[in-house]
Design goal:
The chain has about 725 residues and is α/β, with parallel strands linked by helices. It has three domains: about 30-355, TIM Barrel (Alpha-Beta Barrel), CATH 3.20.20.300; about 370-570, Rossmann fold (3-Layer(aba) Sandwich), CATH 3.40.50; about 615-730, Immunoglobulin-like, CATH 2.60.40. A six-stranded mixed β-sheet has the order 8-13-12-11-9-10, with helices on both faces. Strands 15-23-22-17-18 form a five-stranded mixed β-sheet, with no helix packed on it. Helix 17 (about 530-535) links the parallel strand 12 (about 520-525) and strand 13. It is globular, with a radius of gyration of 27 Å. The termini are far apart.
């Protein structure tokens, strides 16, 4: 095996194709001048039944006859998972809080895919390169909807709204897969398809969902990522829908995905997905051969060792057709060919991305920008923030998360990280004392001692709280950093409360009593129901799990070097009593901003600024449109304050007199604008009538019902600044 030179005629290590002499005639599948479909068909035609089975095991052995290795898929949610440090961005819920599609596509996801390619390029140019040698199929993004505020994986997803999630999913996928018309940069995998947002008993859970709810709430963002962004893969989730496990759900995997949406990529099971057919879901006893056959016949194309071990028997017993087997293999190989695995390495458009870019200063700067734009100023009573650093002699930075960066189970080796404590020290004026006390504990599950799940220190809570109180009393301002960790919320671990865990709320109360100039920095993924804090603490900042540069971003906002403009991508419920049972999948029963019972603690779309904005001149391009028409909505926004700042204008719609129950409001457009003091700009939204439709269960299609629709534009789902009425005619 040779290493490819820039001028060479040798082969890819990626697929392990044996080196060819210049005079040799390659098989058609090795010829990059041929169309991909012909190359794939040629390779499929050469494979034995057993070799096909091996290639449908994503971590199978090498197919020796053609030297084709398994892809060895990877993860890149908010940083490429690698055994060497890579750039660590804020978690995905924080990315959603930026409400910035351009940032997500052209900066964050571009960096993720650059680093994924750089790793791949590194071990191709040097087969002995350090680090894991993974392929280019990445299991991201997670685009499940945050209906469930207790869900342990809220940090992986983009919030509770399908429209916001859809726009962010399209951006993320495009950023990962690149813009070359013939080649993929990396291949994105949408997770977890579908109706998946409960961790408890997830491998046998059966979600009971109406056809209308599926089409309006649980599937539209998946459709957008498939149809618009051409996501190459989807992962079938563990759960069942209406009694049918998703791994064998032909309606979901074939009729909708591959039929209606014309998806030409592949479906992969979640890890152990076939095993759940045998051991997890309550159904008639199923053998592994039957589980594999039914999964493939339903539309699951790619899986674990169970596929490799049982496909030959399934075909020989007549339970799996060879035509369907070949279709599955074609779908998987099509993606691998488009990734360039079977082409000369140097010919690929992404082969020159150097490993030097990994966690480079340029990439760290984007991680800082992402964290800055994600921070949500929830409350700022009496303009406590921003802090004037020139007037602060002593700052007390308190809390169990003040000197910690929370990671998740899809992060790899840890880069150099900046905690809130370190960020404040780095950004404070020279000579300012920045003192620290842990003050209390987050609590939660007992964990193993690793960077991802470190054991909390063994402390006397009363003693540590007393130390924190003394620091706060002697300081000009107290900054208290509290929230959640992976001991509270993560994969396979749903939250047990929406409130603060451990001794954290008691810590805040004690610190606030000692120093009313208290700022609370909330570091969590899911929403925190903290009514006492809202009532009493003057300043609240939602900082999420904010990545490697999060500490600097927090300090930048606290000191006013950055004007916060993040917006909540979910509702913060005022009480747990507002949340319907988690077995209720009909969101109209009280879930999300669309159907919330009562007032929220903080509404969907909410976020404050250090400046002010005025809205005026709401205009519709037409006051009436047909059911297949489009209206353009525009509004003037003026920065009426003294600081440059970003405003996130949000467009909501409401069907005034629908024949079926419809949301109080639905997000149908948003735009993040940067305005100088006194500057006025126009926010413009294109609203097709199709976005006013509901799913008609009689005709099994979307229906735009003629009538009046209220269009509202504002700074959040409750802070509405302008209204208009649109009439839809037959």
């Amino acid at each position: 095996m040779k290493i490819l030179s820039c001028l060479g005629t040798v082969t890819l290590l990626a697929c392990g194709v044996p080196a060819l002499s210049a005079a040799a005639t390659p098989e058609l599948f090795r010829d990059p001048s041929q169309p991909v479909e012909r190359r794939v068909a040629d390779l499929v035609s050469r494979l034995t039944l057993e070799e096909k089975a091996v290639l449908l095991n994503h971590r199978g052995p090498m197919v020796e006859r053609f030297q084709i290795r398994a892809d060895q898929w990877n993860q890149c949610l908010n940083g490429v998972k690698w055994d060497h440090p890579a750039t660590l961005f804020p978690t995905c819920i924080a990315m959603a809080a930026t409400w910035n599609v351009d940032l997500l596509q052209n900066e964050i996801a571009r960096v993720l895919s650059d680093e994924a390619r750089a790793i791949y390029n590194g071990w191709h140019l040097d087969p002995n390169a350090e680090g894991d040698h993974k392929g280019l199929i990445y299991r991201a993004p997670v685009i499940n909807i945050g209906r469930n505020p207790y869900w342990g994986r809220n940090h992986e997803a983009f919030g509770e709204d399908p429209f916001l999630t859809g726009r962010l999913a399209v951006a993320y996928v495009r950023g990962l897969q690149g813009d070359d018309p013939q080649h993929l940069k990396i291949a994105a995998t949408l997770k977890h398809y579908a109706v998946n947002n409960v961790e408890t008993d997830r491998k046998k859970l059966d979600a009971q969902v109406s056809e209308r709810s599926l089409r309006e709430y649980w599937l539209p963002h998946f459709r957008e990522a498939v149809v618009e962004a051409r996501a190459q893969s989807l992962m079938a989730s563990y759960n069942a829908i209406n009694g049918v496990p998703n791994n064998i759900n032909r309606w979901l995997l074939t009729d909708v995905l591959k039929g209606e949406w014309a998806h030409d990529g592949f479906v992969v099971s979640d890890l152990g997905g076939v095993k759940t057919m045998v051991e997890g879901h309550a159904q008639k006893k199923m053998s592994y051969v039957d589980a594999v056959a039914q999964s493939l016949m339903a539309g699951c194309d790619f899986s674990d060792k169970e596929f490799q071990e049982n496909i030959p028997a399934a075909v020989r017993e007549g339970k799996l057709t060879e035509a369907r087997l070949n279709d599955a293999l074609t779908r998987v190989l099509r993606v691998r060919f488009r990734l360039g695995e079977f082409d000369p390495f140097a010919s690929g458009p992404y082969s020159r991305i150097s490993p030097a870019v990994i966690d480079s200063p340029e990439h760290r700067a984007i991680a800082l920008k992402a964290a800055q734009q994600s921070l949500v100023l929830l409350q700022n009573r009496d303009h406590l923030l921003p802090l004037d650093r020139t007037k602060l002699k002593r700052i007390a930075v308190i809390g169990p998360l003040a000197d910690r960066v929370v990671l998740n189970n899809y992060n790899g080796a840890i880069p150099r990280v900046v905690t809130a404590l370190q960020g404040i020290r780095n950004r404070a004026a020279a000579g300012t004392e920045v003192l620290h006390a842990v003050g209390g504990l987050v609590g939660g599950a007992k964990l193993g001692n690793s960077p991802l799940e470190p054991i909390e220190p063994s402390i006397d809570v009363a003693v540590e709280q007393a130390k924190a109180v003394e620091l706060a009393r002697s300081a000009d301002v107290a900054v208290v950093c509290i929230g959640t960790t992976t001991a509270i919320e993560r994969e396979s671990r749903d939250r047990t409360t929406l409130g603060l865990s451990g001794s954290q709320e008691e810590l805040v109360k004690a610190v606030f009593a000692a120093n009313p100039r208290t700022v609370v920095v909330l570091m969590s993924a899911g929403p925190l129901t903290v009514p006492w804090l809202k009532t009493n603490v003057p300043a609240l900042l939602q900082a999420w799990w904010s990545g490697e540069e999060g500490g600097h971003a927090i300090a930048d906002v606290l000191f006013g070097d950055v004007n916060p403009a993040g917006r909540l991508p979910h509702t913060v419920y005022a009480s747990e009593a507002q949340v319907p049972p988690l077995t209720e999948y009909d969101i109209s029963k009280g879930f999300t901003y669309m159907y919330l019972n009562g007032d929220p603690l903080f509404p969907f779309g909410h976020g404050l600024s250090y400046t002010t904005f005025a809205y005026s001149g709401l205009r519709l391009s037409n006051s009436k449109i047909k059911t297949d028409g489009t209206v353009t909505v525009s509004v003037e926004i003026t920065n009426t304050g003294q600081r440059v700042g970003d405003e996130v204008a949000q467009l909501y719609v409401h069907d005034v007199a629908s024949s079926v129950v419809r949301p109080v409001k639905e997000l149908r457009g948003f735009q993040r604008l940067t305005l100088q003091p006194g500057e006025r700009r126009t926010a413009t939204f294109s609203l097709p009538a199709a976005k006013l439709a509901f799913w008609d269960e009689k005709t099994h299609a979307f229906l735009v019902e003629p009538g009046a629709f209220e269009l509202t534009v504002g700074a959040s789902s409750t802070d509405i600044r302008a209204k208009a009425v649109l009439e839809v005619t037959p």
